[in-house]
Amino acid sequence: MDRLASDRPILVAIEPPLGWPEPLAGALAGHRTGEPLPLESAIGFARETDRFVREQTGLKPLDVGADRIARTAEAALSLIEALRNLTGQALPLLSGAENPENGGLVEVYPAATLKQRGLPRRGYKKPHATRERGVIADGISGDLNLSRCRQACIDSEHCLDAALCVLTAVDFLNGKCAVPFSNLMRQEGWIWFPRRALS
């Protein structure tokens, strides 16, 4: 595949988790078949950022250590590596809006973005939920120009989720997202979402 030539830095905003809980990773490293897992299940399957999202928004992201999302996370990491090879850009995990000049990578959570913006987050993923997706598209159009893709967002939950990822990236660049408080961010990742209601 030819390299995608671009002098402009790329910011990738992606929904799947980009890391695993540190306690789980540590427990699995030395685990032997048939032995108990030295892990407190209440904290071992969720990341620090997952707990922070729940505290701030009341929403519970899927536990990458326990839910089917792990396969999606693995596929996302492979996709990111392919983007690195294609663009020649390092795409590092960003720790704040102060350092995106060379591009990078942020994990986002569309449901949290919708919640913080006072928009409906339930039901819009159903195949025929065009009315619900239209309400969301109208609700974000003031901050994101959807003119060329508005109908695609109404027709497809996947297109709308992609638009919500872009919107959260805009919030990130504008310094409107909750800042990481955890030293585990580099290992576990961090979910970026608006830190307060933006309705």
Q: Share of helix among residues?
A: 40-55%
> Regarding quaternary structure, how should these chains be classified?
single chain
- How much of the sequence lies in strands comes to 5-15%
Strand segment count: 3
**Radius of gyration, whole Å:** 18 Å
Q: Please, what is the average pLDDT? A: 88
Contiguous low-pLDDT stretches (5 residues minimum) are: none
- Cα separation of the termini: 43 Å
Helix tally equals 9
What order do the strands of the largest sheet run in, or round the barrel if closed?
A: 1-2-3
Task: List the domain count as a whole number.
Answer: 1
Q: What does this protein structure show overall?
A:
This protein has 199 residues and is mainly alpha-helical. It has one domain (11-192). Helix content is 43%, strand content 6%. The protein has helices spanning 22-29, 41-44, 48-57, 69-87, 110-116, 130-140, 150-155, 157-173, 185-188; strands at 11-14, 104-108, 191-192. It has a three-stranded parallel sheet with strand order 1-2-3. α6 packs parallel to α8 (157-173). It is globular. The chain starts with 10 loop residues before the first strand and ends in a 7-residue tail after the last strand. The model has no long low-confidence stretch (mean pLDDT 88).
